[in-house]
Automatic annotation (TrEMBL):
Protein keywords: Cytoplasm, Nucleus, Proteasome
Name of this protein: Proteasome subunit alpha type
GO annotation, cellular component aspect: cytoplasm; nucleus; proteasome core complex, alpha-subunit complex
GO biological process: ubiquitin-dependent protein catabolic process
Record's subunit section: The 20S proteasome core is composed of 28 subunits that are arranged in four stacked rings, resulting in a barrel-shaped structure. The two end rings are each formed by seven alpha subunits, and the two central rings are each formed by seven beta subunits.
Source species: Acyrthosiphon pisum (Pea aphid)
């Protein structure tokens, strides 16, 4: 018995008979619809810039936030679904604060990025819940 296309697109690690990963293809298409976010590192600091696309006449440009402060020394520019990005920014803030309270030092940018990556990979289907 063969699975239909809708049955192959339920998991990110389920291949179709043609060898396609539909969830990955859907994600790539969603990325193409996202706005631009860019970061430039200079000797004096970092510059973050984002494109604010208005997709509805009900949207107010000045109310759209796409640049966030994670900690005093870490900023973040986002693209894509704002709801998803807010969840990730909140995780980054929580990890950074927890590190400060535990070790009395600022968390490195690399460690914050790793913590957010760990959150994202939990939804990939390959995540081992015992791994941290």
């Amino acid at each position: 018995m063969f699975l239909t296309r809708s049955e192959y697109d339920r998991g990110v690690n389920t291949f179709s008979p043609e060898g396609r990963l539909f969830q990955v293809e859907y994600a790539i298409e969603a990325i193409k619809l996202g706005s631009t976010a860019i970061g430039i590192c200079t000797p004096e600091g970092v510059v973050l810039g984002v494109e604010k696309r208005i997709t509805s006449p009900l949207m107010i440009t000045s109310k759209i936030e796409k640049i966030f402060e994670v900690d005093k020394h870490i900023g973040c520019a986002v693209s894509g679904l704002i709801a998803d990005s807010r969840t990730m920014v909140e995780r980054a803030r929580a990890e950074s604060q927890n590190h400060w309270f535990t070790y009395n030092e600022q968390m490195s940018v690399e460690s914050v990025a790793q913590a957010v990556s760990n959150l994202a990979i939990q939804f990939s289907g390959d995540y081992d819940s015992n791994q941290q």
